[in-house]
């Protein structure tokens, strides 16, 4: 499967990544190779093997819920693409009724 530059740009927009034209040109063949490898894995998958979610038996992996120090709010908000009133600002995803 070969990805076009437009498809790479589309995926980058979905992931909110800003790519230069040079980066798009470099990533298109790399992503195409990754998808080709994924197709090969799908072809090799055996029909008589039961699907599994984990290769090993699960054990209780949760930890106690204990408060720990966190990053200062100013540092976190400084790394955000957009913040307002000490909160992350994100694009609206639902329309207002009315």
UniProtKB/TrEMBL annotation:
Subunit (UniProt): Heterotrimer of A, B and C subunits.
EC number: 6.3.5.-
Biased composition (Basic and acidic residues): 60-72
NCBIfam families reported in the protein's UniProt record: gatC (TIGR00135)
Role: Allows the formation of correctly charged Asn-tRNA(Asn) or Gln-tRNA(Gln) through the transamidation of misacylated Asp-tRNA(Asn) or Glu-tRNA(Gln) in organisms which lack either or both of asparaginyl-tRNA or glutaminyl-tRNA synthetases. The reaction takes place in the presence of glutamine and ATP through an activated phospho-Asp-tRNA(Asn) or phospho-Glu-tRNA(Gln).
Pfam families per UniProt: GatC
Keyword tags: ATP-binding, Ligase, Nucleotide-binding, Protein biosynthesis
Reaction(s) this enzyme catalyzes, per UniProt: L-glutamyl-tRNA(Gln) + L-glutamine + ATP + H2O = L-glutaminyl-tRNA(Gln) + L-glutamate + ADP + phosphate + H(+); L-aspartyl-tRNA(Asn) + L-glutamine + ATP + H2O = L-asparaginyl-tRNA(Asn) + L-glutamate + ADP + phosphate + 2 H(+)
Protein family: Belongs to the GatC family.
Region (Disordered): 50-72
PANTHER family: GLUTAMYL-TRNA(GLN) AMIDOTRANSFERASE SUBUNIT C, MITOCHONDRIAL (PTHR15004:SF0)
Enzyme class: ligase
GO molecular function, one term: glutaminyl-tRNA synthase (glutamine-hydrolyzing) activity
Lineage of producing organism: Bacteria, Bacillati, Actinomycetota, Nitriliruptoria, Egicoccales
Record-level GO BP terms: glutaminyl-tRNAGln biosynthesis via transamidation; regulation of translational fidelity; translation
HAMAP family per record: GatC (MF_00122)
Protein name per UniProt: Aspartyl/glutamyl-tRNA(Asn/Gln) amidotransferase subunit C
